Batch of 2 targets.
Target 1
Amino acid sequence: MAKKQLIMEKALELFAKQGFEATSVQQITDHCGISKGAFYLSFKSKDELISALIDHFMMQITSDIDYIVKNTVSDEKLLYAFYYKIFENFNDHSDFAKILINEQTQSMNAELFSKIRHYDQLMEKNILLMVERLYSHVDRSIKYDLVYCIKGFMSMYSHLFLFFNIPLDLDVLCHSLVEKTNLLAKHTTLPFISEELMRIIEQPCQEEATKEQILEILTQKLEDIEEPIEKESLLLLKQDLLNPAFSPAIVKGLLENIRHNPHCKWISFLLRRYYKL
């Protein structure tokens, strides 16, 4: 296991027990069995480590949802697939999701808040895209309310996975939320969230990643990834970025090879946006 990954996994264990504030770098290094010097070769500070953990979790879920919204062919299956992937991610990464919920009101600095808000806005954009596709026949004035209702369902029901040790039928939950969302879309007559209000509460999003930035991330991934299929696919994608030659179908196939690897989800997300796939 790479040292950076070891530190992130061991630190997460401590953060889950003690929270961010109460966990020191010394405790993390003791738990990892490494020196402080080795820690600082990987991360400049505890905040940088926390930032890396946020990126790791949020990049995976953002990439998964972006793929589902843009690649699910059936309108009837889209909303269910969206909810299923959301709650599957919360369940699979429950320790870190619980930490994020508990810590956002306590020890996070402005930079970490801003990072989380950035990913939140990417999620909002995909939910809005989904709402506009599924409910194009209803009054457009309710679409932003629907976005916030869907986000509310995500937040409220995720607590069932994170804070209550009870058996949950994910299939039933998602079908239930699809029904609720459809009822809201059909019967809402007094929306609260307007386009003007959305503009007020939104912060400027980061610009799209440039070709150079994507190449830099690709190069780093090629050093980190050991799995042969993913590594070869990344190499071919890098070559195509430098000298475009592949058809969209080939690029899609290469992206399909890497998108399930948790360490490749973000680069697959960036490449899908770059290639407009």
Target 2
Amino acid sequence: MKTPATKPAAIAASTALLLLPVTGCGSAEAGSGSTVTVTVGYQSKTINTVTAGTLLRSLGYFEKQLDALGDGTTYKVDWQDYATGAPITAQMTAGKIDIGSMGDFPLLINAARGKQLGRPTHLVSVTGYNLRGGLNTIVTAPGSDLASVEDLDGKKVSTSVGSAADGTLVRALQRAGIDPDKGIEKLNQQPAVGASALTAGSADALSQFVAWPGLLAYQGKAKALYDGAQLDLPTFHGVTAREDFAKKRPAVLEAFLKAQAEATVYLDAHPVAAAEKVAGATGLPAEVVYLYNGAHGIATFDPAVKPRLVAALKEDVSVLKAAKLTGDVDVDAFVDDRYVRKALGPSYAKQLAAAPPPAASEVWPKGAGGTRSFGTPAELLAYVAQHEDGIRAAYVPDATTGTLWFADRAVWVADGRSLLPFVAPATARAYLGAHGGARVVTYAEALGRAS
């Protein structure tokens, strides 16, 4: 699913959805000459939702699908951009947003709030996911002496409480033997505020979701302390829809999911162009977008609601309950894949069974409309050493977790003739402990050895 050569056959986006009975809804009645506004809440800078948000909007696929309905109704799409999932949930439960996209922990809060307020919602598809948890990262300032999660004991750590990144922080601390409630001073901040706090020195570390860790690392404002994939627990983003809207406008939800499937096919087939589109719409560097959403990026995109993701969602409930953000959540009742199952048609079973291909080392040359992949990180380094002035970005997968990272921001280990990259010091140290004679080298040394 990461490159056209390795991804499954294109999603059958034109397949009709299972139509539900039409019941009451707050939208204007469809019919000849009427106008219906469909409100979509998305997070432009949470770039693993792009197939249901930023990229989908830029491609215009949803509007085209609505125009193709031919039911005599004029449809308008109101795209509303938010920094996190919480305000999208607030607007959905107020009946003001019909379809939203957000990460796994916010999805659970969405489910809980919807049930609590009598406006139930359902998870209807998936956008970007990483089966090991690599979408979330804890970072520190470039000159920080912190080298492990254990070093966070007694420190100030910024995160967005209730987010997937907060879940990563909580679990990482627990595994390190630190009480998440008492062992650190947690700063509950929006991602941009937390990034500023880290830069200003008022936070010792920042735990955030895409694309903030990669952005700060790319800008030279942070370095990775903890790779979320060390947890080996899936994390994902998905699409949620109000139950009353789905029943009232099944054809509209059908159009959205068909459009999402089309956007996924586009992203898979044109990863560089997609990164440029998202960058243009968000102001994020295309190199950062590509780190997550590229041909070998940290995220895999396919709309199928995989059982492993649902199982992970159930495990996430306990974290939110401990934080007193939700009570029990009936995940099985929240998940409803009937819509996407019908939209994907015969390919749905393949999508459910498909596993993301292993990440590969990749270079984005300056002025090029595409990228170049390499069999090993050492081969990439050799190429970069010969073309240093002509490299826009270079990406390498962590030798143990597979999480992609910028080559010049990775921790490099020399083991005999092998050159191995790691996202964070902890994964590098773990490798050193198991391989006598291996040692950490600088990026410059790695380049020299490769050339």
